[in-house]
């Protein structure tokens, strides 16, 4: 029996200490970061976690409304090709800045008047940049 207990002990030693669910695994050659008691007990979403956005018809209508009201931004966002612009006898309009800036503007427009107070409060607390990816994904669909 003494050999079995020593085998069990050696297996436990090779696995190392168990990390809590909020701890990060070790990177190559390093040690994992152990979660603090505050992180474990908190249970709240961290500042980087974005609430999941379910797109309903009202939000989609606001997105379309923003695109209709902001023609130049819409043209820059969807970037006319130079050849298409020449064929239509108009000037090509391409995004001079990153398209994310347009997504942020749309997110601010849509979610600042949202029916969900949690979404509006989160937007005020953390800004529209958190919702830009959701807008981008909705446009891509």
Describe the structure.
The chain is mostly helical. It has a domain at 57-140. Helices cover 55% and strands 0% of the residues. It has helices at residues 2-15, 37-42, 57-69, 71-78, 82-87, 100-111, 117-126, 132-140. The radius of gyration is 25 Å and the shape is elongated.
Q: What portion of residues is helical?
A: 55-70%
Order of helices and strands: HHHHHHHH
**Radius of gyration, rounded?**
25 Å
The major beta sheet can be summarized as: none
Number of helices: 8
User: What are the segments in which pLDDT stays under 50 over at least 5 consecutive residues?
Assistant: 34-46
- Would you count the extended β strands for me? 0
Strand residue content: under 5%
How far is it from the N-terminal to the C-terminal residue, by CA?
64 Å
Shape: elongated
Which descriptors would you attach to this protein?
single chain; 141 residues; 8 helices; mainly alpha
Summarize the structure.
Helices cover 55% and strands 0% of the residues. The chain is an all-alpha fold. The radius of gyration is 25 Å and the shape is elongated.
What topology does this entry show?
Blueprint: H1 2-15, H2 37-42, H3 57-69, H4 71-78, H5 82-87, H6 100-111, H7 117-126, H8 132-140
């Amino acid at each position: 029996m003494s050999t079995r207990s020593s085998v069990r002990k050696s297996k436990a030693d090779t696995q190392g200490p168990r990390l809590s669910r909020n701890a990060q695994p070790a990177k190559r050659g390093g040690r994992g970061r152990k979660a603090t008691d505050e992180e474990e007990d908190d249970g709240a979403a961290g500042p980087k976690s974005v609430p999941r956005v379910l797109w309903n018809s009202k939000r989609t209508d606001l997105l379309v409304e923003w695109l209709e009201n902001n023609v130049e931004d819409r043209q820059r966002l969807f970037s006319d090709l130079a050849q298409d612009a020449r064929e239509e006898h108009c000037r090509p309009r391409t995004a001079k800045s990153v398209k994310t800036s347009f997504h942020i503007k749309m997110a601010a427009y849509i979610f600042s008047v949202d029916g969900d107070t949690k979404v509006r409060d989160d937007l005020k607390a953390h800004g529209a940049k958190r919702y830009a990816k959701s807008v981008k994904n909705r446009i891509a669909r």
